[in-house]
Structures are given as C-alpha cells and as structure tokens.
Amino acid sequence: MKRIEVFSCSMNTPTMDETVEWIGSRIDRREFTQHVVVNVAKLVHMQTDAELAESVRACDIVNIDGMGVVWGARLLGFPVPERVAGVDLFERLLQMAADRGLPVYLLGATDEVVARTAVVVSTRYAGLKIAGYHHGYFWDDEESVVEAIRRSGAKLLFVAITSPKKESFINRWKHRLGVDFVMGVGGTFDVVAGKVRRAPLWMQRSGLEWAYRVLQEPRRMWKRYFVTNNRFALMLLRARIASTFNRTAAEHGE
Q1: What is the CATH number of domain 3-242?
Q2: Which CA distances in Å does 136 have to 21, 73, 113, 129, 158?
Q3: Is the bond preceding residue 164 a cis peptide, omega within 30 degrees?
C-alpha cells in the first residue's frame, strides 16, 4: 500500500474501498492490524509528543482523516485521492464484521454512551456480534480491561478515547488484546449514540467539520482547533517556502 511522508509522519493514501478491502484481507489471514487515522490536530501534536509519534509509527495502516491534511499533502505535491474518515470507516468495518460473523468489542466513552452505541449498531447491522463493551475511564486498572477484551473472543476492537491516550493504550497492550484488528475511533461513539451531531455533508467536504464541533462544544473545542489549525497553517507555509527555495536553487545549479 502506497505511503507518503508529511512532517515526519508516514501515511497511507488508499481510498475508502481499498482500505476496507486491505483490512479484510489481513483479518482473513489472521494478521494483526493496528490502525490509526491522522488529522490536523494529531499531526501537529506529533511534532512535540514523542510517545504519540511512536504509537502512530507503529501502526500497520495510517489513514488520512481530515480535509486539512488532505489539502496540505496535496499542496506539498503528494497525490491523495480522498479523505478516509474514521467514523465512516468504523461503519464500513461494522458491516464487514456483521457479514462475516466477526465479533467486535467497543471500548471508550461513558457507560451510558458505549451501552447506547452497542444497541444502535446491533440494530443497524443485522447479525453483528457484540463480544462486549466497556467505558473509557479505567486507567487505574488497565490490565483487567485488557484481559476482559482478550477473554471476550472479539476479532475487532474499536477504542473511543481521546488522543493521545488511545494511541498509547493500543500500542502498549496490542500484543495482549487477542484481537486481529484494533482501531482508535475518537468521539465516534458520541456520534453513533446521538450525543453529538455530525456536521452536514457539505461541511465535511469543505473541511469545516471542526467548526461544527466548535459550535456544539465551544468551551471545550475552540482552543484546541484554533491553536492546532494555526500551527498547521504555519508548518505548511514554512514547508512551501522551503520547497520553493530548494527548487529555485536547483534550477540555478546552486
């Protein structure tokens, strides 16, 4: 699978269909797959958070989730066909799991939200097997949660915890989880359970999904997106200037 490197982060560039097919083929072969999506905020934090950067580098597939990263990569000359949004990939993989009879485990969010998510997806995907679920506030006893996941018989694990906690958790325990596939899905359970509304399709395609999140949770989200978006814009500007300078120097034989 093709990879590009942007700001020291190696990312894959498949379409959604190619991603689902690739993951499915690895599950068929019982090859463990550690998955992650990268957006603007995560890419910015990777520049200073060594543990997060290492957790992302350890993944078998790194999808680009966020139009900001798609546009940024294209601006730097990399061919990225489309965004592979984590919430959409989650839905596609649940359908695949239902079709193939693969049990899934849901980890993260609050008790109420994860329980509601289990009910919603079980109803939405006929035949989907929920091996178990657990809330995301278990840091005093991680090992017992890992053991519960292993005993559940789940083949796919979805972790709905904020970054960088979920990436670090997955990377720390991946060899003891007993699953064939694990993916961090951030706030996806909140969307599925109806606690948070997803942005309209036109906002998703326009790269404004972050703004919709800010409108829903201004006190929690405005600083996060304001800071990371501006840092990313500065990173792109510097990279673009450096690229132009190097190209000009090469043309003049300097």
Answers
A1: 3.40.50.10700
A2: 29, 33, 10, 20, 11
A3: yes
CB-CB contact of 123 with 94 (8 Å): no
The residue behind tokens 């269909």 is 17
Beta carbons within 8 Å of 132's beta carbon, 6+ residues apart: 105, 106, 148, 149, 152, 154
> Which residues fall within 8 angstroms of residue 148, CB to CB, at 6 or more apart?
132, 134
Cα 188 versus chain centre, distance: 10
The amino acid sitting at 210 is W
pTM given for the model: 0.89
The three-state secondary structure class of 34 is: strand
- Domain borders along the chain are 3-242
Q: What is the pLDDT of residue 207?
A: 74
Q: What is the pLDDT of residues 8-49, one digit of tens each?
A: 999 999 999 999 999 999 999 999 999 999 999 999 999 999
